[in-house]
Design brief:
CATH superfamily of the largest domain in chain A: Nucleoside Triphosphate Pyrophosphohydrolase
Low-confidence stretches of chain A: 1-9
Number of domains of chain A: 2
CATH class of the largest domain in chain A: Alpha Beta
Radius of gyration of chain A: 20 Å
Number of helices of chain A: 4
Mean pLDDT of chain A: 88
Largest sheet of chain A: 7 strands, mixed
Number of strands of chain A: 10
Oligomer: homodimer
Largest interface: A-B, 61 and 61 residues
Structural class of chain A: alpha+beta
Helix content of chain A: 10-25%
Order of helices and strands of chain A: EEEEHEEEHEHHEE
Chain lengths: ~220, ~220
DNA sequence: TCAAAAGTGTTCGGCTTACACCCATGA
DNA sequence: TCATGGGTGTAAGCCGAACACTTTTGA
């Protein structure tokens, strides 16, 4: 069918164009639980469904720039580390028009970005990962894929983005790991492993108000 | 800037549209060397540059379907396992128009798909990985990223797609690994590791014409 | 003073690495 | 027969998992 011959692997000037959307799984860690930021749609399709924050890529913007714009509008979140997850191109994933989505994830501190959205307070909310409802579009799938990628990254490197405050105890870090990975970790083995990565430095300060007087660490 | 309010994370019906291209790193294993299939562009921009085979995504096709179409037109390659690598959205990556590309890699047997393209024989060719020239667009980057992903996948699983014939010796498999990973492996340790994965079955046949009479294996 | 949490070391098993000899086959 | 490559086992080091007691602190 294609009018593109074997050599014309170029994109011709009149080729089909299509909307590209970015969707972002914004993970946060609060009250010792991993949470995700969702927004409620106020328009069709999927009106009143919760979905991942996202939107169309605009002219002159890259995908990460578009994400930053969307998040900045929603929550004031800025300058966060984004990780690309995957691209979704099924023809029927948007019921009205063709949309290809690229998903990212981001790790933020919820307390840095109070979700008191300017106008519509009931329509953006942090959900515990275990309590995520059925989402609009194929966003449950995107969330699952992002979480897998986050877990992989966490297992391999010491990547926890902005999920913790600047100073934190090893116990807090361990609880973060346990939450994201969904499994219990041995305290002593965890300490050993994390410390021998050499990416944390002790501050010689102790966290006040906690029994035992745990040492505070920061990222190197 | 954005006309998209905080709640309207939907893709609006008049949102900006943009060409989406797919590019594919087709890896093959021939003469004991990892190779990659490149095509030479016959039109501007980047006329006479070698690039990854690819093309625009068409209406009604998913990205993988578009890849299959492109490869089928170029080489007769069909029904191959594709792995998504990444999405590239820099604004200036195509000098003439805005194009967002999604890259994939595929593993094929060169001997199954003789590259005698119907018309323009000098314009499609297998290159040894070490001999890849400067490519058009940002395709050297795409190639590097694909190769990294291939290596990661190979280290973790036993994924070698269609790179080997149906029956192969462990030595052939080892040479494939060494080529892709770019490092030497110990023969005995390699055998142990691969066999204990339990994904190969011995056929009780020996490969003829080779000293030592090596056993032929196949995928389970 | 006591309860709760922090901090620390050792042992075991499995996995990876390094390494050398005998056997089968084609020439 | 011989040269080439195929096939196998063992010992050492490394990493991750399991596990108990002492110290510090807030209440």
């Amino acid at each position: 069918m294609s009018k593109i011959g074997p050599l014309d692997t170029a994109v011709s000037l009149d080729s089909y164009e299509c909307t590209i959307a970015v969707e972002c799984c914004v993970f946060g860690f609060q009250d010792n639980v991993l949470k995700i930021l969702l927004v409620k749609r106020s328009i069709e399709p999927f009106k009143d469904y919760w979905v991942l924050p996202g939107g169309a890529m605009n002219e002159g913007k890259t995908l990460p720039e578009s994400i930053e714009e969307v998040l900045s509008n929603l929550t004031g979140i800025r300058k966060i580390a984004l990780e690309q997850v995957a691209c979704y191109s099924n023809v029927e994933r948007h019921p009205i028009k063709r949309v290809v989505s690229v998903s990212y994830y981001a790790l933020v501190k919820p307390e840095d970005y109070p979700v008191i959205p300017k106008n519509y307070i009931s329509d953006i909310m942090w959900f515990e990962i275990g309590d995520v409802p059925e989402l609009g579009f194929d966003h449950n799938r995107l969330l699952t894929d992002s979480l897998s990628k986050l877990r992989d990254n966490l297992r391999q490197n010491l990547v926890f983005g902005e999920l913790l405050p600047d100073l934190f105890t090893l116990k807090e870090l361990q609880e973060l790991y346990e939450n994201i990975l969904g499994e219990r970790l041995d305290r002593r083995n965890f300490r050993k492993k994390i410390l021998q990565m050499g990416l944390l430095v002790p501050t010689n300060e102790k966290k006040a108000g906690v029994k035992g007087g745990p040492e505070l660490y920061k990222k190197k």
